[in-house]
Amino acid sequence: MSLAIKSTAPGASFSEAPLLLLLKLRTFIALFAVVVFFSFAAHNFLSIENLLIMSRHVALNAFLAIGMTFVIVAGGIDLSVGSVVGLTGMVAGGLILKGIPIGSEYTLFLSVPAVIVVALIVGVLVGAINGLLITRLNVAPFIATLGTLYIARGAALLSSGGETFPNLTGNPAYGTSGFPVLGSATILGIPLTVWLLVVVGVVAAYIAARTPLGRQIYAVGANERAAQLSGVRVNRVKMFVYMFSGFCAAIVGLIISSELVASHPMSGETFELNAIAAAVLGGTSMSGGRGKIGGTIVGAFVIGMLSDGLVMMGVSSFWQTVIKGVVIVAAVVVDQIQRRAQQRFALQKQAATGA
């Protein structure tokens, strides 16, 4: 029996290894395929000007996808991020244009840095509400974040009666000028948005790979009960991932309002689909416990370039939605194939070693 194992296991291992390598590199392969295809199919796709524009779009999706990665790795889902984008943008726009009424005679106007801080706090608070619903009231993540999706969107609409806050250039006399710089500034020719993504991405990657909190996030997603028995404060971990997701969504809301120099209550609609697609395409397992920030950022590049390339080709927005849905399903299917291949490879290696 041992001779049979020795003769078959090595061959099986060699046949599995290339498949596993291809599956692990699927995001880079997809990115390469997208770039090659659109470089021929879309005029000026690889021009410097277009690449800079795409980098802004990719960055917005990447911010949301980074926060979504933490949530999914911990075994949850956050459907509210798109609505948080709209809400935080409206908060910033309202503070710049209308300020905070104090009584009937006075209005308090905050400086732009203070406006940014307040908007970020709002995003974190929405994330905290999601976390409390899930950890304290035992509401399923899908239902809890679906509820806050509607609440946040409704609050954004109520803040202006469904209208846009236009012309957010601010008033120097009130100290509210300078907000558009966040979305339009460049450093060394690269948009400030991209530099912010680098900072957030590095911090998130460090947390995930180098800190006890990161290990706890993976442990909770892999086996929540086992993590709890080993001393992990599961509820605190879940609170963190949802608050971090809200923080990332708030960044996107601020950047979009700054770029447009206006806030619209419907900003960020369906952005959660792009975030989920980027995370899953980047190797994050929907069952939790597995995923990397680097892979998610590459996945965001794939989704962003795919979207912009389809726009440049004149593809209908309806078909773009269909294609994104196909990408999500395909990414999940490939993830399942990878998991099964890894299990078979591990069993074959164990059998060969044991023999």
From TrEMBL:
GO terms for cellular component: plasma membrane. It is found in: Cell membrane. GO terms for molecular function: transmembrane transporter activity. Its main location: membrane. It is a multi-pass membrane protein. The chain crosses the membrane at residues 28-46, 58-77, 83-101, 108-133, 139-158, 179-208, 239-257, 317-334. InterPro entries: ABC_transp_permease. The keyword Chaperone does not apply. Keywords: Cell inner membrane, Cell membrane, Membrane, Transmembrane, Transmembrane helix, Transport. It comes from the Bacteria. The keyword Cell inner membrane applies. PANTHER family: ABC TRANSPORTER PERMEASE PROTEIN YPHD-RELATED, ABC TRANSPORTER PERMEASE PROTEIN YPHD-RELATED-RELATED. This is ABC transporter permease. It comes from Paraburkholderia guartelaensis. The lineage of its organism: Bacteria, Pseudomonadati, Pseudomonadota, Betaproteobacteria, Burkholderiales.
